[in-house]
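Journal club prep — side note

Before the paper discussion, L.F. wants everyone to see what a predicted structure for a comparable chain looks like in C-alpha cell form. Sequence:
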Amino acid sequence: MEELFGTIAGLLKTLPEQHEFRRAMVFATWRRIGGGKVTENSLPIEFDNGHLTVAVTNETWRRQLGSLSKEFVYKLNQTLGWNTIRSIVYVVDGSSFTNFHKGRDEIPATITFSESAVDVPEISRQAAVIIDTELRQKFIAAATSSLAYKKRNGR
C-alpha cells in the first residue's frame, strides 16, 4: 500500500490541476492515518483550496479531533508527499455517515480490469471512503493504471 500512495502522490505532482483525483487521495489518506475509532466517527466530506472538511458523529468527536488538527495536517501532508492541506474543519453531521454507508454498498464485490495482476481488492478497499460513485471509479481506474504501468516497466 505504501507503494501505491507513493506512486499516486508522485503522479499528482505532475498533474497539479487534477482536483477530483487529489480530493480522492486526501479522503483515502484520512481513512488510512485515522485508524480505528477515528475512522468510525469521522468522514472527510469536502476538500477545497487546501481546506479539508470532516464530518464527525457528535460534538465530543468534533472537540477531540479539533484539538489534534495540527497533527492531522502534518500526517496527511507527510503521507501524501505534498503540502496541500492547510486546515481541517470538523462539523457534526450524522447524515454524512448514513450516505457513506449506503455508498459503500454500491461498490461491486469484484471489479474486472485488463491488468489482472494489480491489487484490485486493496484499491477497492481504499476507494470505499469515496462517497461519489464517479469519483470513486476514477480513483480506482487511475490507481490500477498506475500500478499496471509500474509492473510493466519493472518498477
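L.F.'s comment for the group: The helical segments are 2-14, 19-34, 36-41, 59-66, 69-80, 94-104, 120-127, 133-152. Keep this in mind when we get to the figures.
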